[in-house]
């Protein structure tokens, strides 16, 4: 009997390594696939990945995606900041690179039956269609970041660690020479730099003094550059006041930020654009939603749907809804639509 081939998107960390081990135990012909992204540590990282692959006994393929990553992820990241939004580059990498270019390379060039990753995610078939759903360890769930991938791709995707808790994953790989041992929360292309340092390097013209406005539009102070700030931020606003003031808005083109009291950050509605629909969403439907990764579900009423946008009303006001972040809609734990907050 010919084994089905599963190609694992491989970083050398605990999750992708555990995914490969689990697939081998299930009887798949396992191969590993990693990508060159043009980082300064590639000369060290690739040999370490090759060593780990030999230890595991699986062949490793390296594909050069430097130009596409720079174009689709890094330039998008910089453009969003320049346009006063706060982007989510990991989500962009998922739908532009990992579950697009990397998946296609696995299927078309490596003869894979499935492309697998170490994401804490799961899939479920409903009426013959695949949907993203929560994994066993919901505390580690990453499906929020996957909501904008092509729904059709899920037919060819496996999430081997969906049924494991994080402690079980660590146990599976504890004796191996992992390449990425830490659970980094940083954007990969920052490469240890702070966000501000990275933006200053690539967009120095945005770091200039501008006006701080109050909620009525009156100038109340100055700041070193609107690009520094995120909606909802309180500390580091370069302005002292008797009351606690938060960033309500930033306008990078005008180089202004608006400060106000905490309650002014509360929103009744959210509009999400560039929506990927996993199934039709109807006006009047009641769904769960997330407007940031670290949050609980919020109940929403769908009040408007177009070909590429959804407007929803929160049952209870939500704080600091941030343009550029993901707005993801769920039905009983399965993603039904996802897009970018306007």
Integer tally of domains = 3
The main sheet comes to: 6 strands, antiparallel, barrel
Name the helix and strand elements from N-terminus to C-terminus, one letter apiece: EHEHEHHEEEEHHEEEEEEEEEE
Q: Which CATH architecture of the largest domain is right?
A: 3-Layer(aba) Sandwich
Instruction: Find the CATH topology of the largest domain.
Output: Rossmann fold
Query: Which stretches of 5+ consecutive residues score pLDDT under 50?
Result: none
Specify the CATH homologous superfamily of the largest domain.
Answer: HUPs
What's the total helix number?
Answer: 6
Distance between the termini: 52 Å
Shape: globular
The count of DSSP E runs of length 2 or more, i.e. the number of strands, is 17
Could you tell me the radius of gyration in angstroms? 22 Å
Q: What is the CATH C level class of the largest domain, in words?
A: Alpha Beta
Strand content: 25-35%
Helix content: 10-25%
Strand arrangement, major sheet: 12-15-14-13-16-17
Would you tell me the overall average pLDDT?
95
The helix-and-strand class reads alpha/beta
How would you characterize the overall build of this protein?
The chain is of the alpha/beta class. It folds into 3 domains: 5-190, Rossmann fold (3-Layer(aba) Sandwich); 208-260, Roll (SH3 type barrels), CATH 2.30.30; 265-341, Elongation Factor Tu (Ef-tu), domain 3 (Beta Barrel), CATH 2.40.30. Helix content is 24%, strand content 30%. It has a 6-stranded antiparallel barrel with strand order 12-15-14-13-16-17. Strand 10 (246-251) and strand 11 (256-260) form a beta hairpin. The model has no long low-confidence stretch (mean pLDDT 95).
């Amino acid at each position: 009997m010919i084994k089905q081939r599963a190609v694992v998107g491989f970083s050398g960390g605990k999750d992708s390594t555990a995914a490969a081990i689990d697939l081998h135990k299930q009887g798949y012909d396992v191969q590993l696939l990693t990508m060159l992204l043009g980082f300064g540590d590639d000369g060290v990282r690739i040999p370490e990945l090759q060593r780990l692959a030999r230890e595991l006994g699986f062949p490793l393929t390296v594909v050069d995606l430097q130009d596409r990553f720079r174009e689709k992820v890094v330039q998008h990241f910089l453009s969003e900041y320049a346009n006063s939004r706060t982007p989510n580059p990991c989500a962009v990498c998922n739908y532009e690179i990992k579950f697009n270019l990397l998946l296609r390379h696995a299927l078309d060039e490596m003869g894979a039956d499935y492309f697998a990753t170490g994401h804490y995610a799961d899939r479920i078939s409903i009426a013959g269609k695949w949907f993203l759903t929560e994994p066993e360890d919901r505390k580690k769930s990453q499906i929020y970041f996957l909501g904008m991938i092509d729904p059709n791709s899920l037919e060819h995707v496996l999430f081997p660690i969906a049924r494991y808790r994080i402690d079980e994953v660590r146990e599976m790989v504890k004796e191996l020479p992992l390449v990425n041992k830490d659970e980094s929360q940083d954007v990969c292309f920052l490469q240890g730099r702070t966000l501000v340092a990275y933006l200053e390097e690539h967009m120095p013209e945005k770091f200039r003094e501008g006006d701080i406005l109050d909620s009525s539009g009156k100038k109340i102070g100055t700041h070193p550059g609107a690009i520094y700030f995120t909606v909802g931020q309180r500390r580091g606003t370069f302005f002292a006041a008797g009351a606690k003031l938060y960033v309500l808005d930033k306008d990078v083109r005008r180089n202004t930020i608006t400060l106000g009291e905490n309650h002014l950050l509360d929103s009744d509605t959210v509009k999400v654009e560039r929506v990927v629909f996993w199934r039709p969403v109807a006006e009047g439907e009641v769904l769960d939603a997330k407007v940031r990764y670290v949050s609980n579900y919020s109940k929403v009423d769908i009040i408007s749907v177009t070909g590429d946008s959804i407007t929803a009303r929160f049952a209870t006001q939500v704080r600091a809804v941030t343009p550029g972040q993901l707005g993801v809609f769920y039905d009983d734990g399965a993603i039904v639509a996802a897009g970018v907050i306007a």
